[in-house]
Records
---
Amino acid sequence: MRVSRTRWLARTAALLRRRLLPAPGCRLSAITAYSASADPSRVRALVYEHHGHPTKVVELKDLELPAVGGSDVHVKMLAAPINPSDINMIQGNYGLLPTLPAVGGNEGVGQVVAVGSGVTGVKPGDWVIPAAAGLGTWRTEAVFNEEALIAVPSDIPLQSAATLGVNPCTAYRMLMDFEQLRQGDSVIQNASNSGVGQAVIQIARALGLRTINVVRDRPDIQTLADKLKNLGAEHVITEEELRKPEIKSLFKDTPQPRLALNCVGGKSSTELLRHLAPGGTMVTYGGMAKQPVIASVSLLIFKDLKLRGFWLSQWKKDHSPASLYRCDFNITTLLKRRMLREMR
């Protein structure tokens, strides 16, 4: 099911990108580079007026660019990704839904073109990313309130800046907020080749943590394992290997993990729980298998395991803009050290 879901997302993403940049011969990637409209008062945007299948409800429209007021920032979008959460929001089954009609896209990076008289945090030429989900980044230009934006360094790769606010931030917060991990401690996770999973590997390596990375079996499993190990993964194992009794030998040289990160649910999450150290925590931030997390009574009683959930959008609501800036600053510092080479 997850394979077909991945292919479905890829096809949907390709269709949406073509709608924004319909010019023939245009080279597209997972990050779409935007070009400005010829009319300075009009911008192009991918808009949906009701919820449904993205390729049926999303339309390419011309929008009028409003005047820049006192606290407004005129931004030209440089790049924006298409994430599963973007698709879920359009479908209407996400935890946060904007008022309709809405512009798609929750993540991206733009360059400041002009600012209002009351703006103090950014200036023309700065790069900015959304402070929260629902901003609507699938457009060529926009005028946003200053409070809706966070400035980021412009000397990091464009694709890294465009994807900084969701996956790496999710990885960083889960590593920092649920267990007091020290250098040498280990973390176990499933969906390790996902955007969050790869960020976890690299941030954990930078923090001196060891990672046990679970992936689905596939014909090119060694190629994937080599890729993740190049990013800093210590162990890469399949879900089938995690269920075998022989896996206990892995923990002779690697401490039992105190933190598990679950993006799958179902049997995969149950296996993560089985290998947690007593008193450990499993954090669920996704449900790719669309199956519930099942924890046995014995694990909860005799190992005193904790089950938690994490949603970055809620974390951002609960924290000040200064906290958001510090989070992004810490991640970009790692980027500059070339510890986060791949953000997807």
---
Amino acid sequence: MRPVAQLLHNKFVVVLGSSFQRSVYKDLVLILQRDAYLSLSQLKTKGEFSFEQDCLVEGGRLGQMNNGTAYREVRQYRTNHHLIRFYFVTQVFSRYMESILADFEQGIKPDLVVVNSCLWDISRYSREWASEYKENLNKFFRKLKTLLPEESLVVWNMTMPLGKKIVGGFLVPEIQHMGPTLRFDVIEANYFGATLANHFGFNVLDLHFQFRFSLQHRMQDGVHWNSVAHRKITCLLLEHVAQAWGVELPKLDQINADTHPPLRENHSWQTATSSAPARYQGSYSNQRCFYPPVMPATNYNYGPVWTQGQRMRQFNGFGSRYSNDDLPPHSTGYQSFEREAFYRGANNSAAAPYWPVNNLVMKQKRRKPQNRERQHPYRY
């Protein structure tokens, strides 16, 4: 079994975020199946009915395609021993995010949550974004702390470096004036996100630092990154997860050799990592639409099946095991939102049956125990 498939064997992985995180999800799905890079079309396409045998559960081409804050896209890749789910979010805490967290509360708990929400938060909702963003980060991290079990691993991906000039669909006319300064705002927002995630005991993967000397892999729109960069991100993420779970993996060079097909262009990642400051050491296009193949509605890890159009139960506040004394000093407490009913995949009948050491990241001081008892009922 390949190292990636072995590491994520019988694991439920959730990826939360915008288009960048969607590419993180896609590369994970791809690397589990074959040795290949994402194509340019796969990187650019959003909301397709199926990508590499995954399934569109909600939103995307099942709804209205747009570049607004109301855009939704929920995807899922599932095999007998792997379950990876992606939610497209534009704000780190909102009524929609509450519905996603309600999925975790009612259903099976994820073993790994990979999350980033920054660029939309600081550009689409308010010019004075800092205070609102910090408060939303507090709400999100506190709710995660309440809902997830002790052994669940949460990795906060810091936002990658932006270009001086941003073009494309993200920079709608309403926020074009923010283009020249967004790259500086991202640095400040990264500080907020990393600091709070670390405070709550979550892991932080500093992708901004990792790719500061690899800007040749950033796309022309100034926001997104190419397939080579995303394979590097996948390797860093898996390395980090393996360390947290206490699993021994081949060195990064060996993982690269196993999962990277030959490249025509010359590239080296040593430049990006050889000059790490001492303080970091040891501290931390439109695609043809088609319906996906039908898969059996089996329960994953003995958990309930995520059924089509399933209504999510409303929830109130936090569980009793999380004390207000554990909150950051500048927290202002939980503010409930107006309740709405949310449905998962209610419009998609085709998806009905589905449901070496990396020292350049901040990481939790203690490892997350790997739950080796969680076994899928349909084992080989």
---
Amino acid sequence: MSSLDERDGGVVAAPSSSSAGLGVVGAAVEAVAAVAAMQEEVGSRREGPEPDPDDEPPKKKGRVPGGESGKLEERLYSVLCCTVCLDLPKASVYQCTNGHLMCAGCFIHLLADSRLKEEQATCPNCRCEISKNLCCRNLAVEKAVSELPTECTFCLKQFPRSSLERHQKEECQDRVTQCKYKRIGCPWQGPFHELPAHESECSHPTKTGTELMGILGEMDQSHRRDMQLYNGIFSLLCYEKIGFTEVQFRPYRTDDFITRLYYETPRFTVLNQTWVLKARVNDSERNPNLSCKRTLSFQLILKSKVNSALECSFLLLKGPYDDVRIKPVIHHHCFSNDTNETEYVLLPISDSVECNKLLAAKNINLRLFIFQVQK
């Protein structure tokens, strides 16, 4: 047998069985098998102690086929998983200068923690410095992870991660769905394949007008609250004096015995007046880095001297180049020389994940609108 035949017999035989076991994803696993083999060979040549088995990430709960294909998937999971949460990344993958991988959520969380503790963020594996400038995305790992098999939570079948979302939203016959009469109060939800049978027997289309009016009244209240916000913004646009500017919050530390992190903008001019914005984390909590829930609150300060009361409405929105989600909230205050500071109000971000995005940045960039109320 020639060397080529030996290579064909010794290497291709095992992956061929995995191809049969994995079905639609077998070809993807074979494609990334060479990457795992090369990384394993390079790692064996490096000098230094062998890795401790206790440090290896735990096996995934997903169903793994038996035989050689199952072993290959386990090896790929351990190679491509995040070094922080020990799970496969779902979106962007970042790497430190030594190549250790971090999913986007853990990477942003590490940067936010370092800002709160006034420390340099480091890789949890090799302790080298990490930042948005030092770290970069690893597109090869992102593509490899997207082709690895994963289990549908509804039908328990295996699919490539890149196609799982479309399958669970549009194709899976066991996906959870709701009755089309939900808008008139039907609470039913169940597998998609049971939907036609339920809708043919649903009792809500036969409800009386009085019953339906009670259900629609509750829905109208929720819609009315949303419309009140938008109508308030539209009415503010009719004011004669409107000003807006991009503001940049910079981090500072207090000079107290227990230092606390706060943010402040440079002075800026809007409506011919000089202003400053301040912000604080978790309402100046002593150790916000120990809290899982994080919030930002801010206040608007008038620095100019005024001859008469200045009544204003104001709101903060995300900056033109940021992706943080902020739901607009209108605030009112009557400024004077004695009452030149507003109370601290919450920045209306959706959750702690969005707050970490802001804290992880070197500076926080937002857009401020101020509307002067005419007397």
